[in-house]
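User: For my dataset I need records formatted as: sequence, then C-alpha cells, nothing else. Please produce one.
Assistant:
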Amino acid sequence: MGEVEPVEYGVAVERYLAGSGLSEGSRRIYRIALDTWAWALADRPAPTGPERRRARPPVLPLALLDHPDAAGRLRAAFDRRAADTDPRTLNRELSTLRAASAWWRARGWIAGDPAAGLRPTAQPAPAAEPLDPDRLRALFALRAPLREQALWHLLHESGAAIETVLALDTDGLDPTLRHTRPHPQRPTLRWQSGTARLLLMLTAGRPTGPLFLTDRRAPAGTPAADRCPHTGRARLSYRRAAELFTDRTRPLGEGWTLRQLRQGG
C-alpha cells in the first residue's frame, strides 16, 4: 500500500523532516524555516524574534503551493524579510523550502515549484577588521552580565568560531589547564586567565549542560542536549548572542559584530 498523500502543509513538513535523515537539531531549524513560509502562503506576516520559534503556524492545505497566487505571496514575503534578515539566514530558508518542495514533487504531492522565481540575495560584505586594543579595552570595561563578559572574552582569547563556542558544554572544559577537553569533532580551544576566572563563576553549580544559556526556561520540545539539566534553560543561540552584543556595544559605536572579537579576524 502506497504512502497516503498529506492534505495539510504542516503534515507534509513533518513527513519531509522524518524522511530527511537530519539530526534533531537540524530538523528543528528546518521546521522553523518551513513554518515561516506557511505564514507567507497564508498572506500573513510571520512572527519575529523569540515569538517566531514559539508561534503555531497557520493550518493550510499543501495544495496551496500549486495555487497561481503562491509564487506572488512567497515573493512578497521574501522581499519583506530581505529588508531586515541576514542574507545567509534568508538564503538558508529559501534552500530549505526548495529542498522540501522537490521532495514533495517527487512523491506527486505538488506539481510545480513555488520558489522557482526566487533568487538568493547577495552575500554580505567581507567581515570587518578585528577590534583594535583600544576598542577591546572599552568593550571589556562595559557593565555587562557575567554571561556576556565570559562569551566575549572566550571568543577573543580562543579565536574560535562563534558557533563552536556556543556549542560548548560545561563538562567539556578543563578549567585547570584552561582548554577544552579533547573531542573527536571539535578543535581544542585555549584561553587565558581572564576567561578562566569568568568561566569558573559562570559554571558554578552546573557541572553538565550547555555552557552559555538563555535567560528563560527552554520551551517544550527542546532537545536534551540543548537544555541545562540544572536550571531548565536552553542553549544560547547565535542570533540572540549577536543581538545582545549589538545592544551592549551600541554606545561604543555602530556596526560591531561578534566575529570582530576573534584574534586575527
